[in-house]
Design a protein that fits this description.
The chain is 2% helix and 50% strand. It is mostly beta strands. The strands form 2 sheets. Strands 2, 3, 5, 6, 7, 8 and 12 form a 7-stranded antiparallel sheet that branches. The chain is globular, with a radius of gyration of 15 Å.
């Protein structure tokens, strides 16, 4: 059985669709609780790629802004795929105090494929990136007390227009230390 929320762009270059929490005050528990680097935050999602990943950008994880651009947030940890970049493989992106690192996962992104993406921030603020249960990368200690927002997005590349892009978000969860 298929399930989830299908995020679908138009075929227009740079069009995007983002799954994001409601960010206005008192509208969602996602904004009433901070998801910080100092709280042993764990985020995960299960997504399925669509029938075309040509000219696509997919990103998912913990950021300060809702953009797939690596050099935008001073602090962030997220997964990123962009057709034509990094041999078509997932990248693990970590930004610590405006120093960006893109680490190759060595996992090729394929069409119509499920991926379970997990980011765990440990008590020492290191972030561990898992794909389908396998530890891929451990980032250096993140900046202390940075509160992230969980995002999942799909975008048509700025120079691309090879049809609409889609991913299915089958689930997303976030938790943290309650201390």
């Amino acid at each position: 059985p298929e399930c989830g929320i299908i995020l679908t762009t138009t075929a227009v270059a740079a069009d995007l669709v983002i799954l994001a929490p409601h960010l206005d005050a008192n509208q969602s528990a996602w904004t009433q609780v901070t998801w910080g680097t100092d709280q042993q935050t764990r985020w995960e999602t299960c997504i399925r790629t669509g029938a075309s990943i040509i000219d696509a950008i997919i990103w998912a994880g913990l950021k300060l802004t809702n953009t797939a651009v690596v050099a935008t947030d001073n602090d962030q940890v997220f997964f990123r795929y962009e057709e034509g970049v990094n041999a078509g493989e997932w990248e693990c992106i970590s930004s610590i105090n405006n120093a960006d690192t893109a680490t190759d996962s060595n996992i090729v992104v394929a069409i119509n494929t499920n991926y379970h993406l997990v980011i765990e921030i440990a008590s020492d603020r290191t972030a561990r990136f898992y794909i389908d249960g396998v530890l891929i990368f451990t980032a250096a200690a993140l900046t202390n007390a940075v509160d992230f927002i969980p995002y999942v997005g799909i975008e048509v590349q700025a120079a691309g227009a090879a049809g609409a892009k889609a991913i299915t978000v089958r689930g997303q969860a976030i938790s943290r230390n309650v201390a």
